[in-house]
What we know:
Layout: E1 14-20, H1 25-35, E2 39-44, H2 51-63, E3 66-69, H3 76-88, E4 95-100, H4 109-122, E5 127-135, E6 138-139, E7 142-146, E8 149-152, E9 160-163, H5 164-170, H6 182-192, E10 196-205, E11 211-217, E12 220-226, H7 231-246, H8 251-271, H9 275-291
Parallel strand pairs: 1-2, 1-4, 2-3, 5-10
Antiparallel strand pairs: 4-9, 5-6, 7-8, 11-12
Helix pairs in contact: 1-2, 7-8, 7-9
Protein name: dTDP-rhamnosyl transferase RfbF
InterPro entries: Glyco_trans_2-like (IPR001173), Nucleotide-diphossugar_trans (IPR029044)
Family: Belongs to the glycosyltransferase 2 family.
Amino acid sequence: MPENADNSPSDAAVVTVVSAFAPGSSLVEAVRSAIGQSSVVVVDDGSPADGSVDATLDAVEGLGARVVRLPRNSGIGAALNAGIRDALADPDTSYVLTMDQDSTLPAGYVAILVSLADEARTAGIRVGSVAPEFAGGLRSNRSGELSGFVLAREPIQSGLLVPRDVLEKLGLLDEALFIDGVDTEYFLRTTQEGARCLVAPGLATGHQLGGTLAVEVLGRSVPVTVASTFRYYYQQRNLVILLRRWARRRPGWAATAVAKHVRHVAITTLLAPGRRARLAELRAGLVDGLRGKTGRRPEPTR
């Protein structure tokens, strides 16, 4: 992480938007890590009525966050968009930073991203977003350099700083995807317009990237990251949808995306328990993606 980082907010007006669903103590830690660096809006995405959820939301309000409650579970795109609209309603807002409820920001994080964005703009670069180098211990993919600035390849949305003018020009996130691929879609749209996504070298967020299982391979314990079973439906469906939209315009991205997805599915199928349920979700996602279905998956009839 760069030196001389503290918790002082930058001169630019930044609003951090945190999406939450059935939040627990991790949301409190997420807000606590951001509140000294920016204004914070927490959007509860239609969590079930629960005293512990109410207590958590009350706690983050007590820290100084504004809480917006959606009436129904509408997906991460809709939740973040609700917070972004709230942030942009203030004409002084210069940047919006999006964040998951299970992420945390280090001291000085916001100021570092804003400084990098401002420096790049001074150098004549159209800045689409700025991402940390590491999220949850994983390094962001890079796509080269431009005028000494490191370019990101498909950064995740948690911890991502987006300038106001980009949001106003391109519009908000694609709510129809519901969850998974929302950040990829915005990255593709941003870079297609000629804006650049930058990496802040050395900067890291805390972030939970799915669950990790220890599996035995040739007598050795190997960690395998596995998402919740239902997420495989959205991962498969939304990949198909994005391929249908973007494969001809971005063949390099398409080939890489398919290869990564196939590799992950192969590893989890071979090594992780619960493969039958995951494969069923993948099949359903493939069918619905080919049919062009979007939005929240209907609840199964009983």
